[in-house]
């Protein structure tokens, strides 16, 4: 780009970062993100969500959580998509352990701390992951916490019944 006297923008960086992470070079992608700051560019939601997804895909959910913290410094407020991506990575990508399931429940705390409410997709992903790991008591807590007497309460319990039946826990359903 220097040859043509062009300056890269956030979109150009997002394309290159995506190509780099597809090759599994997450640390190099983080270096590119830091490089953006040197030329007074800031990562946007696309930059963050793609990196969060890739960190989760390779089991580096702590790094993904760190990215969420750093978003605020770049005037990029984590939203339901960000938290759903984190939940997807923590619960669905195969890095599920009891500790990770409980970490996923902590995502609700992070959302509330940042002034965000989880959307239905986020809650359903969390319920699904917790249910698959047999954390039914935790599912009850999540449902009670997020529905607080709303019409969603029955819908989430209906989902729980379906999920329990799918995994063969008819008695619990």
TrEMBL record:
Keywords: Repeat. The keyword Nucleus does not apply. Coiled coil: none annotated. InterPro entries: PPR_rpt, TPR-like_helical_dom_sf. PROSITE patterns: PPR (PS51375). Transmembrane segments: none annotated. PPR repeats lie at residues 9-43, 44-78. Pfam families: PPR (PF01535), PPR_2 (PF13041). Belongs to the PPR family. P subfamily. This is Pentatricopeptide repeat-containing protein. The lineage of its organism: Eukaryota, Viridiplantae, Streptophyta, Embryophyta, Tracheophyta.
């Amino acid at each position: 780009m220097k040859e043509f006297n062009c300056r890269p923008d956030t979109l150009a960086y997002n394309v290159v970062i995506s190509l780099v992470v597809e090759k599994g070079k997450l640390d190099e992608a983080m270096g590119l993100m830091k490089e953006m700051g040197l030329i007074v560019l800031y990562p946007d939601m696309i930059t963050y969500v793609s990196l969060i997804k890739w960190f989760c895909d390779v089991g580096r959910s702590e790094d993904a959580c760190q990215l969420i913290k750093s978003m605020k410094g770049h005037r990029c407020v984590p939203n339901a998509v960000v938290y759903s991506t984190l939940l997807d990575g923590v619960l669905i990508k195969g890095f599920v352990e009891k500790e990770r399931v409980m970490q996923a429940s902590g995502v609700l705390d992070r959302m509330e701390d940042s002034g965000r409410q989880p959307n239905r997709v986020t809650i359903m992903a969390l319920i699904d992951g917790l249910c698959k790991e047999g954390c039914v008591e935790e599912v009850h807590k999540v449902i009670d916490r997020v529905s607080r007497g709303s019409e969603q309460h029955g819908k989430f319990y209906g989902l729980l019944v379906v999920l329990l039946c799918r995994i063969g826990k008819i008695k619990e359903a």
